[in-house]
Amino acid sequence: MTKILTTIIVLIFLSGCASTNGNYSEFSEKPFIESPATSELLHAIPDLDQPKITIAVYSFPDRTGQRKPNPKFSQLSTAITQGPENYLISALKKVSWGRWFTVVERAGLTSLVKERQLIRSTRDLYDGEQKAQNVLKPLLFA
User: Fold this and answer.
1) Three-state secondary structure along the chain?
2) CA 22 vs CA 13, 14, 26, 31, 114: distances in Å
3) What is the residue-averaged pLDDT of the chain?
4) How many Cβ atoms sit within 10 Å of the Cβ of residue 105?
5) Section 96-112 average pLDDT
6) How far is residue 59 CA from its own chain's centroid?
7) Rounded Cα distance, 121 and 142, in Å
8) What's the pLDDT tens digit per position in 120-129?
9) SS3 68
10) Res 116 pLDDT > 70
11) DSSP letters of 101-112?
């Protein structure tokens, strides 16, 4: 008796999820879009009539004052997006399908300079005329 009652209750609940007429036309309309997407607008820009422009993109400091240090509490929210240089680089690459700009990313320039210094010092120390004796192995560089 308990199994029959449980089966009936389960069937009642499952029948509430079933569709009666299968008509989903009210949900199949696409939403209205007021203007084309930004990517489409950038792709539609005509080609440049001169050589490509080389442009360097550095990081953007947050000058809104939203992240000022506060001794009383921690402020984790920001007024602007973090890493906006990534959006700018992406937009510049989309202009006329990449035929306008040669984009050079410089947001990580300090890391690049440190890596180059590491390579130079490693080569001078281990590959130079005076090979170092009794020192640690060189750091692996990329």
Assistant:
1) CHHHHHHHHHHHHHHCCCCCCCCCHHHCCCCCCCCCCHHHHHHCCCCCCCCCEEEEECCCCCCCCCCCCCCCCCCCCCCCCCCHHHHHHHHHHHHHHHCCEEEEECCCHHHHHHHHHHHHHHHHHHCCCCCCCCCCCCCCCC
2) 19, 16, 11, 21, 64
3) 76
4) 15
5) 89
6) 14
7) 14
8) 887 777 766 5
9) coil
10) yes
11) EEEEE-TTHHHH
The pTM of the full predicted model, rounded to 2 decimals, is: 0.54
H-helix or E-strand containing 44?
Answer: none
CA nearest neighbour of 122 among 102, 142, 96 = 142
Dihedral class, residue 7 (left if φ above 0, else alpha if ψ from -120 to 50, else beta): alpha
Type of residue numbered 120: R
Hey, what are 43's tokens? 């792709």
